Amino acid sequence: MLTRRALLAGSASLAVAGVTAPRAVRAAARRAPLRDPFRLGVASGEPAPDGMVLWTRLATDPLAPDGLGGMPRRPVPVEWQLAEDENFRRVVRHGTETARPEAAHSVHVELEGLEPGAEYFYRFRAAGELSETGRTLTTPAPGTRSRALNLSFTSCADYQSGYFTAYRRMAEDHPDLIAFLGDYIYEYGDYEHPVRDQAGGECLDLAGYRLRHAQHKTDPDLRAAHAIAPWAVVWDDHDVRNAWAGDVSRKRRAAAFRAYYENMPLRRAQRPVGAALRLYRSIRWGAVANLHLLDTRQYRDPYACAGRAGRAGRAGTVGPDCAERLAPARTILGQEQQTWLDAQLRESHATWDLLGQQVFMMEMDWVRGPAQGWSNEGWDGYVASRDHLAAIVGAHRRNAVVLTGDVHSHWAGQISRDQRDPGSKPVAVELVTTSVTSAGDGLDEYPDTPDLLAGNPHVRFFNGRRGYVRTRISRREMKVDFRSLAYVTRPDAPARTSGFFAIEPGDPALNPA
Ligand SMILES: [Fe+2]
Q1: Quick one: pLDDT at residue 24?
Q2: Ligand 1 centroid distance, CA of 185 (Å)
Q3: C-alpha 435 – ligand 1 centre gap (Å)
Q4: pLDDT of residue 27
């Protein structure tokens, strides 16, 4: 591969020779140096016992309005290396991929044949320039119960709402795996008083979504989190459009899905076909944990009782007069995904089954006092789906822990076989992570928090600040730290543990510690 110096020397000699013929100019432009093409950082994801995905996307001008990152409209070769050590003395794999303009110059390297339970380092080189180094790993060999999983998860990173300090604090913990549970970007147009200015206005087409993803990836805190560990990502509504439930045009969905794939360390199996992308899948950590990643957006039935809210597709709070949310045929996963998940749980031999997904699963009465009201956007709007899942978890005696995002605050609670019956036994624990930035600085507790908790006795914990959840999962127990930031409207807030719980196999309870 040509070094950058050689490329510069080449174009200089053309200038000296006074070559100005259009063909020669075009040839020179094709070989022109790409200044600092790794401004979007590096990432890895989808770890398996024998491999993972390495990702990068070239951009010399990440905020270029056409979403193409300032890159020339030609393919660019990208070399990559995977080594056992940070100094790349023991390179175990290397190769060259082509970053193509039709994929916004993104590169996905899908590796196999590596050692299980091993740490690796990787980097890329393009146009003579070297990327930063990323750390990644393979999962333990199937059946291994001795290696604990350090898993951190978060959701909801609205660029305009604040600084991505939560990503920085996650990176500092050096987790084994980061799960992102939706709203990696927000499609919104510009706020009147943003904490940080975004480029491009509302995402409506491929250029818009590509640009929004590119701007996020320029963030140093987010880059640090991607470089430190492999990620497992699922989307929620804002990755496409606020509160969408099948009511977004195919064209817009296809644009959002394509940009999502281009910008995430996903496998080829997650490549979109038009307005369809199979995002549900499982990641296994030996025999300690299976992480089942769900998609509650793409296949859900329309919102229950949305008509009364004045417009079709409207998400909101519905009262006891909304019988539709209890209809037995309603589904939040769709039949195909439901069948797949049933099989995953039936065949699981792991100590823990983690369900990474988007929206509140436990019942939640959001109305204070004796009146009742449930969100038709969470599983409360699809009660039959929740009942079915609770029955399967119970029948197969799985230790299920649901990992949730969406609501921009920390919550922990229990899911019962029949959540409307207070005597019904809990079958699973739910851990809801707060947001990276969405909803701004927040408070530990709001004036209505005590009333909400009193009205929902299966809910054990709340914190209303930004942050993430940090877990350590072994065959013996699952330790959970709810991490909270003092502020996000200024950079660099410290993180503290606002809640700490331990969960034991065989007992879906949140034990305070
Ligand atoms: Fe959100």
Answers
A1: 57
A2: 9
A3: 7
A4: 58
pLDDT (tens digit, 9 = 90+) per residue, 395-447? 999 999 999 999 999 999 999 988 777 788 899 999 999 999 999 999 999 99
Region of 426 on the Ramachandran plot (φ > 0 left; ψ -120 to 50 alpha; else beta): beta
The CA 153 to ligand 1 mean position distance, Å, reads: 14
CA of 162 from ligand 1 middle (Å) equals: 13
Decide: 24 and 244 in contact? Cβ < 8 Å. Answer: no
- Quote the CA–CA distance of 351 and 266 in Å, as a whole number: 26
Neighbours of 22 (CB within 10 A): 7
**Whole-Å CA distances, 443 to 54, 57, 190, 273:** 38, 37, 25, 42
What pLDDT is stored for residue 1 in this prediction?
39
Q: What's the CA gap between 209 and 205, in Å, rounded?
A: 6
Put simply, whether the predicted model's pTM sits higher than 0.85 gets the answer yes
**pLDDT the model gives residue 174:** 98
pLDDT of residue 384: 97
Distance (Å) from CA 157 to ligand 1 centroid: 7
Cα gap 432→448, rounded to integer Å? 19
For residue 238, how many other CB atoms are within 10 A of its CB?
25
Quickly tell me which residue has 């539709």 as its tokens. Answer: 324
Interval between CA 183 and ligand 1 midpoint (Å): 5
CA of 22 to the centre of ligand 1 (A): 50
Which pLDDT value is given to residue 201? Answer: 96
Tokens of 265: 């360390």
For ligand 1, the distance from its centroid to the CA atom of residue 376, given in whole angstroms, is 16
Report, as ranges of residue numbers, the positions in the chain whose pLDDT lies below 50: 1-21, 309-312
Q: What's the gap in Å between 166 CA and the centre of ligand 1?
A: 15
Q: How far apart are CA 104 and CA 96, in angstroms?
A: 17
Identity at 444, one-letter amino acid code = D
Distance between Cα 407 and ligand 1 center (Å):
6
Separation between Cα atoms, residue 283 and residue 300, nearest integer Å: 23
User: How many Å lie between the centroid of ligand 1 and the Cα of residue 408?
Assistant: 6
| Distance of CA 156 from the midpoint of ligand 1 (Å) | 4
* DSSP three-state, residue 397: coil
Centre of ligand 1 to C-alpha 54, Å, is 27
- The alpha carbon of 375 and the centre of ligand 1 are apart by a number of angstroms equal to 15
**Alpha carbon of 314 to ligand 1 centroid (Å):** 16
**HEC profile of 251-304:** HHHHHHHHHHHHHCCCCHHHCCECCECCCCEEEEECCCEEEEECCCCCCCCCCC
Q: Residue 131 in contact with residue 42, Cβ under 8 Å?
A: yes
Query: Residue 432: which of 450, 446, 415 has the closest Cα?
Result: 415
**Separation of CA 155 and ligand 1 centre (Å):** 7
Euclidean distance between CA atoms 156 and 144, whole angstroms: 33
Spacing, Cα 405 to ligand 1 middle (Å): 8
